[in-house]
Amino acid sequence: xxxxxxxxxxxxxxxxxxxxxxxxxxxxxxxxxxxxxxxxxxxxxxxxxxxxxxxxxxxxxxxxxxxxxxxxxxxxxxxxxxxxxxxxxxxxxxxxxxxxxxxxxxxxxxxxxxxxxxxxxxxxxxxxxxxxxxxxxxxxxxxxxxxxxxxxxx
Length: 154
What we know:
This protein is α+β, with helices and mostly antiparallel strands.
């Protein structure tokens, strides 16, 4: 669909991110989800040529989401440095795939109910799912898990 070749799945790492391309209002978006924290960021609308540099798309959308969530400049730089050279691979982590599919559904419903993505922007839509309680996090939310990870690492 988007013309990106992927490697076979390797060993999972705590720094892994999953991506899913989907359509809202006839425009493509990419939803990224961190394996460890289930923190998400949404990029879009994206074109086929944008997706060829999926690492750059992730870094840009992560920076925008972190600014929206009031992360400090030091935390943003730290998080972006950890994503310097991402490798694209197929996934076999069904738990994260379930989370990303649920989050995609919530984003689509939120956008549909409120009249489209432009009503909230991508960072506003993804904030909706980052503040929801998640079963894999013992019903904590992704934003607080991501904040804890940034504080622990700093």
